[in-house]
Amino acid sequence: MSRRLPLLLVHGGAGLRELTALQADCLTQALVDGYAKLRSGGAAIDAVEAAVRVLEASGLFNAGLGSNRQLDGVQRMDASIMEGRDLRAGAVASIEGVLHPIAAARHVMDETAHVLVVGEEATKFAKHLGLAAPSRRGQRQIGPSQHRVLRPSAKKTWQLYREMQQSGHLRWAALGKETVGAVALDRSGTVAAGASTGGVDIMLPGRVGDSPLIGCGVYADNHSGAVSMTGLGECIIRIGVAKELCDRLETGASPAAAARAVLQKLVSRVRGSAGLIVLTPDGRFAIRHTTPRMAAGYWNGKGKPVVTDRFK
Length: 312
Ligand code: ASP
Known about the structure:
It is a single chain. The chain has 312 residues and is an alpha+beta fold. The chain has 9 helices and 12 strands. The chain has helices at 21-39, 44-58, 101-111, 119-128, 154-166, 169-173, 233-239, 241-250, 255-270; strands spanning 7-15, 77-83, 88-95, 116-118, 180-185, 191-197, 218-221, 225-231, 274-279, 285-289, 293-299, 306-308. The chain has an 8-stranded mixed beta sheet with strand order 4-3-2-6-5-1-11-12. It has a 4-stranded antiparallel beta sheet with strand order 7-8-9-10. Helix 1 (21-39) runs antiparallel to helix 2. The longest helix is centred in the first third of the chain and has 19 residues, at 21-39. The structure holds aspartic acid. Aspartic acid binds next to strand 8. Aspartic acid is lined by residues 13, 177, 179, 197, 199-200, 209-211, 230-233.
């Protein structure tokens, strides 16, 4: 697949489920809002953030408002964002009570000298910046106060986890979730990538996946391309998929060939399961998945945005 500048791709997770009409509309809206930034000459990173915000606020995906709960009943979210001109990146992990973890990741990138801020401190940082305040920027408060939180003892949580692990539920369940992400290419030829997630179906409190880890869940480099991953984070991390994919692009592989090779490696080396969106600075792109379905779409501003849940 090949497109001219600028270009935006979004995804709503790789798994088993069919895309619903509401989710399809939401992915289309994410493409429209994100592309509006690119059309007016804005930066790829702004398009990525705008698109991911739409998906986080929808409650229809496993990110932001719709995030999964960990086994103690708490939503802890991960997100990251990266731009390919100067390799700047920001990320948050295990953040709570924030509607837009992608915005918190952006703040880490823009306003600190760090790349990754985690846990309670990430939550405090985001709240300090007003990200959780319902009255500012139209954001709603989410987190424990909104729902019944079970907060079982650590012993009970551990027992539950072990039972699920032994029954094999863990691995299978992780295939069905709907993390979100975006990659963009702007008029200047800069690429950017972002991801936001509530994790997998069954997870210990404090579990962190690939999405906030630069080089695993996302990567963006103007010398190669931009990648956003979805799938079982424990496997994606061990291969370092996003960086490996960009390395393959840099040595001349096409997006489709590089994606195929790295996904094959993921399956054969660690029995992983994943999907990805990738684009290059010259406007080529690919959407690939090892799962039965992957909710995703793309738009170059002409015709209508394309959104579907199967890309092979
Ligand atoms: N990669 C995410 C994680 O492992 C989950 C997903 O993409 O479905 O946290």
